[in-house]
């Protein structure tokens, strides 16, 4: 019999593809989502949060791949980010991936996560490498020149790290 029709393994679950540990904060931040198709902000609450994105509980839907501006507010602190809609769960919420975070938002987000416990069952895939990248993003943010007319944004950085076997 030919090997062409071998049963393929199932694709990995979304939780197995996550690059960042997820956290559920005891007091989740309020969320406002702005996008070009809707003049009024979409409001909700962040159900879970990670260094790479968040889930916003809301009954509104926005198409997958739509780029939005996200403002998370908690205890007077604010994180403003450009994000991409990665997943839509009708009448439940939106999975957002951070594309860039403005100002001191990286540090605020890190402070929120450092006071929370990771969710159980959320695999820390390459968590050590992500922690190093996170630290590097914070260090880059501190050393980037500031322009008055348009703030610099930190874009994605890809590093290849050796894997110990």
Structure characterization notes:
The protein has one domain: Thrombin, subunit H, CATH 2.40.10. A hairpin with a 2-residue loop joins strand 4 and strand 5. It is built from three helices and six strands, in the order αββββββαα. It has a six-stranded antiparallel barrel with strand order 1-2-3-6-5-4. With 165 residues, it is α+β, with helices and mostly antiparallel strands.
What would you say about this model in short?
Helices cover about 20% and strands about 30% of the residues.
Count all strands and give the number: 6
Under the CATH scheme, the architecture is Beta Barrel
Spatial strand arrangement across the major sheet: 1-2-3-6-5-4
- What are the low-pLDDT stretches, counting only 5+ consecutive residues below 50? 148-154
Helix and strand composition category: alpha+beta
Whole-number radius of gyration? 18 Å
Rounded to the nearest angstrom, the distance between the terminal CA atoms is 36 Å
Would you tell me the overall average pLDDT?
A: 75
Give the tally of structural domains: 1
Summarize the helices and strands and which ones pair or pack.
Layout: H1 14-17, E1 30-35, E2 38-49, E3 53-57, E4 67-74, E5 77-89, E6 93-101, H2 105-114, H3 127-143
Question: Which short descriptors sum up this protein?
Answer:
single chain, 165 residues, alpha+beta, Thrombin, subunit H, 19% helix
């Amino acid at each position: 019999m030919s090997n062409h029709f071998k049963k393929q393994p199932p694709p990995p679950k979304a939780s197995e593809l996550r690059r960042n540990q997820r956290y559920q904060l005891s007091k989740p931040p309020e969320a406002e989502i702005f996008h070009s198709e809707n003049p009024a902000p979409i409001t909700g609450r962040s159900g879970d949060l990670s260094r790479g994105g968040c889930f916003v509980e809301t009954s509104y839907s926005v198409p997958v791949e739509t780029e939005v501006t996200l403002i998370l507010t908690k205890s007077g602190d604010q994180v403003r980010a450009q994000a991409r809609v990665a997943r839509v769960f009708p009448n439940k919420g939106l999975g957002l991936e951070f594309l860039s975070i403005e100002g001191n938002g990286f540090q605020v987000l890190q402070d929120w996560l450092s006071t929370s416990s990771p969710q159980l069952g959320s695999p820390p895939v390459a968590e050590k490498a992500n922690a190093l990248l996170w630290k590097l993003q914070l260090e880059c943010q501190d050393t980037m020149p500031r322009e008055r007319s348009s703030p610099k944004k930190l874009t994605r950085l890809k590093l290849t790290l050796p894997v110990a076997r």
